[in-house]
Amino acid sequence: MMESFQDHTRDFLKNVKRVVVKVGTAVVTRSDGRLALGRLGALLEQLKELNSQGFEIILVSSGAVGVGRQRLRYRKLVNSSLADLQKPQNELDGKACAAVGQSSLMALYDTLFSQLDVTSSQLLVTDSDFRDEDFRKQLYDTVQSLLDLRVIPIFNENDAVSTRKAPYEDSSGIFWDNDSLAGLLALELKADLLVLLSDVEGLYSGPPSEPNSKLIHTYIRAKHQAEITFGDKSRVGRGGMTAKVNAAYCAACAGIPVVITSGFAMDSIIKVLEGKRVGTLFHRDAHLWVKQVGAREMAVAARESSRRLQALQSQDRRKILLDVADALEANESLIKVENEADVAAAQEAGYAKSLVSRLALKPGKISSLAKSIRILADMEEPIGQILKRTELADGLILEKTSCPLGVLLIVFESRPDALVQIASLAIRSGNGLLLKGGKEAMRSNAILHKVITSAIPDTVGEKLIGLVTSREEIPDLLKLDDVIDLVIPRGSNKLVSQIKESTKIPVLGHADGICHVYVDKSANLDVAKNIVIDAKIDYPAACNAMETLLVHKDLACNGALNELVVELQHEGVGLFGGPRASKLLKIPETRLFHHEYNSMVCTVEIVDDVRAAIDHIHQHGSAHTDCIVAEDQKVAETFLCQVDSAAVFHNASTRFCDGARFGLGAEVGISTSRIHARGPVGVEGLLTTRWILRGNGHVVDGDQGVVYTHKNLALQS
C-alpha cells in the first residue's frame, strides 16, 4: 500500500481546535516508579504552547496509583522495624494507593503549570457517572466554561471510589482504562483530535524490540488487524498498546482522528498538529487514502520474487527452509497464543467440532512441522534437474529440465498447519505463492505468515508469499489466468466447486474425500478390525478418513460383519447403512452414499464380491483413496488395478494417503484430477518442464543441411 499520510493529515488538521491528550503511567513515571519530572515538564511546555496558540487542551492523566504506591511504600518503610521488614510484605491496596497518589499527582501538575503561567483543574470521574445523562450534560458545560477561561482540565478515573474490583484488573463498564476514558471524553466533549501518548513511537507490526517490527504510520483495519502481533501489556498501568489500539479505533470510527505517538519525545504533540509524519494515525477515512495493492500487483510481486528465488544457489534455497524451521520453533509460544485465540473464538461462535479440531495446533505440532521442513530441505534439489537428454543432430543437444510452475494460489479452510506445509513446498519448488485462509484461522495464519516471511532474505523478498486477508479479493485473483498458474483449493466440497466454476486457471484438488474400505471374504478379521478402526477414528476430520465400509456378503453370514460393527460402535462411531446393511443390522438407512461425514460417523453396506465393491466405489466415491483388506492376492490385484482412484491400498489404512507419510516432506493437498498431478501433491506436483537446446550456429534452412540423429544421451547433473 502507498500511504499519503501528510496530505490528508494536513487537510483535517486545518479544522482542529479541541484536543484531548492522554498520558499514560509509563510516560508519567520512571522505570523505578518515581515521577518522571523532566518528561512531564517537557510535556506541559508543549501544552502551554498550544494553549497560547488558541488550541483547547484537555488532559487525561494516568499515574495516580503508581505515585501513591511509591509514597505508601516509603511511608511503610519508615514506620517499620527491622523485624517487620523481615516478614513477607503484603501488596498495598490499589484504591488506597489511588487516593494518596491522586493528590500528589495533581499537586505536581498544579505546580508545574503555575510555573508556566497556566491554570489547570482536576476532574475525577467514575464509570457509573456516565450512565447519568444529566451528569454528561453538566460535564460538557463545565469543561466548556473552563476552556473559555483558557484553563486546562485534567481528567483521571477516580480509582479510590471506583466500583471496579481492583485497579488494573477489572475491565468491565462503559470505559475500562484511561485510554478508553480518553476516547469516551473525546466523544462527549466533541474533540477534534485525540492524542494517545505511549512509551514507544507508535503502533508497530510486532513488539517494538523485535528487529523486523515496523512502525505503522496509518492504521488500516482490513490490512493491519491480521498482521499485528502484540507483545506484553504495559509494565505499569492497566492498558498497553492493545488498549490504545482499541480505544483509537473506536474513537476514529466515531469520527474523531487519533494519533498514537511517543510521550518521551520533546515535541511530539506539536509535530502532530503541524502535520508531521510521527506516530500512528487512526482515521475513519484512512482506507480511502491508500492506493490498494491490487490482486494483479500482488501476483506479479510473487512472480518476481520467485524468479529471484530460482536464481539462488541450491544451498541458499535450502538455508531459507532451515531458517523457516528455526523461526517456527523460536516463535512457538507466540504462535500458540494466537492459535488458542482462534480456537476460543471458533468455539464461542459455535463452529462444528470437526472444524475446531482442524483449527487447533495441538502440542508438538510446531516441532513436527519444523521437522518436516528440515526433511524437505535435505531432499534432492528439484529445480533444474535434467530429465532427458537427446542429440537432435551433430552438436545440437536438447535437454528436458524441471522448473517451477510460477505462481500458486492456495485457498484453504480451517487448518493453519496447511499454511506452513504449503509455504515450505513453494520455497523448495521455487514458486511464488498467494495464500487465502479461512477467517476462523485469521490470527494463526497471520502470525505463521509473519514468522515464515521474516526468514526470507531481502535478496528474494517477503512478497514471495502473499497473504490475502479479504474474501473480496478472491474473485479478482481468480481472473488472473495470465499471472497465476495454478489454483489449489483445500476445503469443503462447496469451496472447491465454487472455485472451479469461477476461474480459467487450472485447478488442482479434490471436492470430496469419500474413502472406502472393502473387507473381502478372504480378509484376516483381526487385520480388518485394525485397519477399519484406524481409517475411521485416527483423524475423522481428515479427507483420507474412511467414510464407507463395504463388506463381502459372506461376512454378514458368519458373524464377521457384526464383529466389525461392534468394534466401531465401541469406539463411539455412529453408523448408517445402505439398503442391505440397514435391514440386517437394524441401523438407520443413509439417504446418500456420496457423503463425507468428517466426523465419528460412517456408512456400512454389504456387497456381493470385489467387482460389486469396485462398481460401488466408482458410482459413489470421489476417486480419492480406497482400500481392500484381503488375503486372496488375485482379488487384491483386481481391486488395485481396477479401482480408478488417486490412491489404492491393499491391507493398509487409508490414513497413509499423506504427503509426509509418502516421504514427500509435505503436501499442498491431495489431487483427484487426472491431469498434471494425482494423489498427495508434494514438490514434484509443483513443477513443470522446459526445453533447453544447445547448438553451435545451427539453422533449419528447410532442413536441407541437417542430419537428425535423435539419439538418447546419458543424463548429466
UniProtKB/TrEMBL annotation:
Keywords assigned by UniProt, alphabetized: Amino-acid biosynthesis, ATP-binding, Kinase, Multifunctional enzyme, NADP, Nucleotide-binding, Oxidoreductase, Proline biosynthesis, Transferase
Stretches assigned to the Aldehyde dehydrogenase domain: 296-556
Gene Ontology CC: cytoplasm
One GO MF term: glutamate 5-kinase activity
Domain Aspartate/glutamate/uridylate kinase: 17-262
UniProt KW Nucleotide-binding keyword: yes
Enzyme Commission number(s) from the entry: 2.7.2.11, 1.2.1.41
The reaction(s) this protein catalyses: L-glutamate 5-semialdehyde + phosphate + NADP(+) = L-glutamyl 5-phosphate + NADPH + H(+); L-glutamate + ATP = L-glutamyl 5-phosphate + ADP
PROSITE patterns documented for this protein: GLUTAMATE_5_KINASE (PS00902), PROA (PS01223)
Keyword Repeat: no
Cross-referenced InterPro entries: AceGlu_kinase-like_sf, Ald_DH/histidinol_DH, Ald_DH_C, Ald_DH_N, Aldehyde_DH_dom, Asp/Glu/Uridylate_kinase, G-glutamylP_reductase_CS, Glu/AcGlu_kinase
GO process annotations (BP): L-proline biosynthetic process
Pathway: Amino-acid biosynthesis; L-proline biosynthesis; L-glutamate 5-semialdehyde from L-glutamate: step 2/2; Amino-acid biosynthesis; L-proline biosynthesis; L-glutamate 5-semialdehyde from L-glutamate: step 1/2
A Pfam cross-reference name: Aldedh
Role description: P5CS plays a key role in proline biosynthesis, leading to osmoregulation in plants.
Family: In the C-terminal section; belongs to the gamma-glutamyl phosphate reductase family. In the N-terminal section; belongs to the glutamate 5-kinase family.
Protein name: Delta-1-pyrroline-5-carboxylate synthase
